[in-house]
Amino acid sequence: MGTPADPFPAPAYLLALRQGGLRDDLMRLAARRGHPGWFDPPLCVFAELAERLGTGARRPLTAAERQVLLARLMRAARGKVFSHARRPEDYLDGVDRLMGELCAADVAPEAFVAALDVADGECWKRDDFERARDAELGALHAAYRAALDDAGRRDGRDALAHCARFIAAHPDELAANLGGRREIRMVGLQDLRGGWQALLGALVASPAIDRVVVYTAVESEFAALGPVIGQVERLAEPETIATRIFAATTPRRLPTIVPGIEAPDAAREVEEVARRVRALCDAGVPPHRIAIVARKARPHLDLVVDALARIGVPATARRRTALVEIPAVRAVLILLDGAAAGWTRHAMVELAEQPYLENSLDVQVLNTIGYRRQVQGLAAWRDAVAELRVEVSRREQGDEPERGGWERQVALPPLARVDAALVALDAFSSRAGELDGERTLAEWLDWVRGVVEEDAWGIGRLLRLLPAAGRVDVARLDLAGWRALGDLTSQWHKAVTDFGGADDRLAAGGFAARLRSMLDNDVALWSTTGHGVQVEEGPAAAYRPCDHLFIVGLESGNFPANPPCSAVLGEMDRERLIAAGLPLDPPDAWERRERELFRVLCAGAGLKVTMAWSSVDESGRDVARSSFLDEVEEAATLEVEEIPLSRVLTDGMPLCATPATAAHAHRVALIETGRASRAASPWNGAMEDPELRDWIAHEFGERKLWSPTQLEHYAKCGWAYFGERLLGLRTLEEPDDSLEPSVRGSILHRALELFYDAARRERGNAPVLLREDDGPAAEAALLRELDTAIGEFEQAGTWLGAPALRAALRAELARILRKYLAFEIDWNRKLFGKLGNNPRVLQTGVVAHEVRFDDVTLNADGVHVRFRGSMDRLERGVDERFEGSEHYVAAVDYKTSTFAMPGGGDKAAWADGVVLQVPIYARVLAELYPADEVSRIEYRSLKSPSVKLALQLYEMSKQGAVQQNETDCETMTGAITAIARHVTNARAGLFPADPAPSCGCPSYCPAIDVCRVAGGPQRKEW
Ligand code: SF4
Questions:
Q1: Per-residue pLDDT reduced to its tens digit, 199-218
Q2: For a FRET experiment, which of 63, 371, 512, 823 has its CA 20 to 30 Å from that of 113?
Q3: Least reliable range by pLDDT among 51-60, 84-93, 965-974
Q4: Virtual CA dihedral for 157, 158, 163, 166, nearest 10 degrees?
Q5: Contact 944/938 with Cβ under 8 angstroms?
Q6: How many whole angstroms from 840 Cα to the centroid of ligand 1?
Q7: What residues pair up with 859 in beta bridges, in sequence order?
Q8: How many CB atoms lie within 10 A of CB 513?
Q9: CB atoms near residue 916 (< 10 Å)
Q10: How far is the CA of 637 from the centre of ligand 1 (A)?
Q11: For residue 400, is pLDDT > 60?
């Protein structure tokens, strides 16, 4: 308390604390003890100490200034390593870190060069590249220090070294800065890197200081320094596992039980921790006496805060978000990326969907155009939208030619929408056009300044409008990121003005890359609750007391964390420099510090420490638990609760926020259970709306003209059919330069058609059954027809891929056709043999390709269905083993590969009722040629030549008589029944998600995103 002589007393020493959290703890303690505070606070944290004691006149560089200066020096470096690197900025981080270390340790340029030049010995054999790199690093360091001297600045990470020099040179100013105090106490110093050694020496030697006291948990760090550092006091620690882990002395083991949580993943790990924290709070432990600590902020701290919020426990946390991930900052980057990409469809759609960029770009219009063809550049987009306008206008006026019914009509946006899109595009282009082309770095920075300070794109205004439901946290983060972007731009601008580089010319992509590397930082925000559970990163939690401590994320690579790697110096290089006398950090010091951090954290727990870890890392890969847990197990009993993989719900963790949500979840669960049967229901493809059912009954009634492929599509999965053919869903892919697979198939079909037509003409219109003798001539003719087919497609303007690859395309198609032809000739050879089933097949020859049928009504088990379509190939009997073989016909359907066949050609597809195309052809042939019999139907694969899913409706008996194959006729009957069933179901409005087992769900299913089939899409292993 004050006295008349000293109304505002303050401690007679300066207390420097390791980090801000400790200062908060001290302030809280002082408040609890009724201390009113100080006018001249005798407190600071380590990061403020140098400024408090004095560092001299030189101002530190900002991070932006350092990067600009170093980048300029690297580009100007003489040598072939840095200045010739394709992306010198890749090395910038490593060089910056090295320069920081050298400056902090006050290593003179000559000393660095001397250490680099230590003669190569047995252990340190350098190759030519390493010598060249070392020479450039030495020159770079000298140039950097000289540039700092010229500018009268300092690096910024050398504060302690400058402070030491200042103290030695200006004891009076030090005394004044300390306000007459002659003692300094430091709490939590355990790492003497970065100039501490020099500072402690200077303080002890200063006539302005009587006493320097260091309170630490690692006395050993100071042992080698002897009296130079003043008085070191080891902080008293009660006997806990913290005093036993990593200890060299025995016995190490205590009777303490340390709870452990082993979870299948980080989400369940933090949920279990949150549950236990909630139990502690319910038992009366004040939340602020509980701490949850992770070595690194990401990903655990966010997960912990969210889990605590869900279970109703307040948390106090400093959450970090990468600047480039903050939505408002991302909006600027997306704009630059769009320009860099040349305003592609993807870029334009991303811009259109960006909530922070006020533009009315229309995603549907952009996608309608962009998925048809590649469009790049703002002017090209304008032309494309104008063309679309003409097309839509024609369609709306009914001037467009008929495309074959409602199913094949590609949906286009209405004219009014296209008009609005054109206006929006013009408005967007008038602003975004400025991002095209090159400009100087200073001009780019002016542009960003205009975006942030003058709000040229309206982002600042939008981010100040609170997001829905009062999400103040989102607005806070955006504002912090926006401010950081503005500050960075100003600092960067000043840096290029002072240190050069303002005139570098860059396109949008180059500037975006530089901006990203400048934004390689985090924004940290405190939660609004001050007295909740302390959720902290490891370094911030060190030396802070609590009653219950949970250390989470104890996985290998997480804690102990991996040391940062450098792109410029490897571990061996570093050891070489240390051996040569440089005070750099040795590679093993990192591990030592990680152990000490873990130990200090454990020591902070007054009552209990719980360890938690998971079995997989962030990317889902298996990960081993931390080696620190083995140490804990040696010092105490680690009692592990293993959370089984099957435990999805954590006890006590609410699944939903309100009773209404729970009721909804219950209802949905019942629906999901019903859906598991895959039967059609209102939640699985059964249409309920009477109007819609009427429409379906009308459209799918007897007047509907089916194509066999459409019905097969329905049979494979009703919901996939509904999605693609009724809702018009498409799997959209960016157009590229490659050939469409369907075009490849069409060319092959056409080549075969031309070939067989010519062969028939040569044979006086007789059916063509190729034999071994036909081989060489047939191959030459087929390849000739392939060239003709390619020419036809070219002439029709079909895109056949990049012209440079035309020869390769022709070679590929020729290879397929040659192989297929050889297969067919061999297949026919076997028809005349005596082995296997082939001799039983009635011999038929090709008479036609692409046999069209426009409207044939079939009676399938009493269900009348109209079909249209065309058969790939028709054959007619040429069998000389019996009279009248010309009255037997066969239908063949070509597929490029077996994957295109129902069930991939698997016979099980018959039982699934999905092989419909060829049975329909059989029935159509019977209608078209009532005097003939259908002897055979089959699919043929061209790429891996084979005959699949064939039915021999008539065959040659062993006795030489033509007879019906009863088994295959039954299969045919089953197929007809399936046709009747599918058509009836479709007419009834039933489109269930029920993929045929033999087919599974194709990866390209257009309905996959709106499909809730029980168990998820069924993949079939082919
Ligand atoms: S993903 Fe499978 S079940 Fe769903 S619609 Fe497509 S094919 Fe049918």
A1: 998 998 999 999 888 888 77
A2: 63
A3: 84-93
A4: -140
A5: no
A6: 40
A7: 864
A8: 15
A9: 26
A10: 52
A11: no
CA of 1017 to the centre of ligand 1 (A): 6
| Token pair for 341 | 């990409």
**Atom number in ligand 1 closest to CA 1011:** 4
What stretch of H or E contains 363? helix 363-370
Atom of ligand 1 minimally distant from the CA of 718: 8
Tokens of 240: 């806990």
pLDDT in tens, 771-829: 999 989 999 999 999 999 999 999 988 888 888 899 999 999 999 999 999 999 999 99
791: Cβ–Cβ under 8 A, 6 or more apart, which residues? none
Q: Give the span between the Cα atoms of 24 and 619, in whole angstroms.
A: 36
SS3 for 594-657 is: HHHHHHHHHHCEEEEEEEEEECECCCCCECCECHHHHHHHHHCEEEEEECCCCCCCCCCCCCCC
Residues in a beta bridge with 877: 844
Phi, psi of 206 (to 5 degrees): -75, 135
Structural element, H or E, at residue 12:
none
734 CA distance to ligand 1 middle (Å) = 23
Assess contact for 280 and 522: CB atoms under 8 A.
no
Select from 717, 731, 914 the residue to mutate for testing ligand 1; criterion: most ligand atoms less than 8 Å from CB.
717
Mean confidence (pLDDT) of the chain: 90
User: Residue 276 in contact with residue 541, Cβ under 8 Å?
Assistant: no
Pairwise CA distance, residues 29 & 27, whole Å:
5
Confidence of residue 224 (pLDDT cuts 50, 70, 90): low
b/e per residue 979-1012 (b: at least 16 CB within 10 A): bbebbbbbbebbbbbbbbebbbbbeebbbbeebe
Pocket-testing residue among 990, 998, 1010, 1013, ligand 1, by greatest number of atoms within 8 A of Cβ: 1013
Buried b (16+ CB within 10 A) or exposed e, 237-249: eeebbbbbbbeee
Distance, CA of 304 to CA of 288 (rounded, Å): 15
| Tally of CA atoms within 13 A in the half-sphere of 691 that contains its CB | 0
DSSP E strands, 298-359 = 315-322
Greater model confidence, 120 or 418: 418
Asked if pLDDT for residue 717 goes beyond 60, the answer is yes
Give the Cα separation of 901 and 895 in Å (integer). 7
Rounded to whole angstroms, the Cα distance separating 349 from 347 reads 6
Q: Per residue in 825-882, pLDDT tens? A: 999 999 998 887 888 999 999 999 999 999 999 999 999 999 999 999 999 999 999 9
CA–CA separation, 193 vs 195, rounded Å?
A: 6
284 CA to middle of ligand 1, Å? Answer: 53
Phi, psi of 818 (to 5 degrees): -60, -45
Interatomic CA distance for residues 609 and 601, integer angstroms: 9
Mean pLDDT for the stretch of residues 439-467: 91
In the block, residue with structure tokens 């270390």: 101
Looking at residue 938, its pLDDT comes to 97
Q: Which residues line ligand 1 (CB under 6 A)?
A: 717, 719-720, 993, 995, 1001, 1005, 1007-1008, 1011, 1013, 1017
The sign of the torsion formed by the CA atoms of 839, 840, 841, 844 equals: positive
981: Cα separation from own chain's centroid: 44
DSSP code of residue 726: I
Instruction: Give the model confidence (pLDDT) of 719-756 as tens digits.
Output: 999 999 998 888 877 777 788 888 899 999 999 999 99
Upper half-sphere CA count for residue 296 (Cβ side, 13 Å):
15
Counts for the chain of helices (H) and strands (E), in that order? 36, 25
